[in-house]
Amino acid sequence: MNEDNIVVVKNLEKKYKSGTHAVKGINFDVKKGEIFGMLGPNGAGKTTTLQMMGTLLNITSGEIKIIGYDVASDSNQVRENIGFALQEAGLDSLSTVRELITFHVKLFGFRGPEIEERVEQSLSLLDLHQYSDQMIPELSGGTQRRLDLAVSLVHDPKLLILDEPTTGLSFYDVHKLMDVIQRLVDKGNSVVVIEHNLDVIRCSDWII
Question: Is the pTM here over 0.70, yes or no?
Answer without folding.
Answer: yes
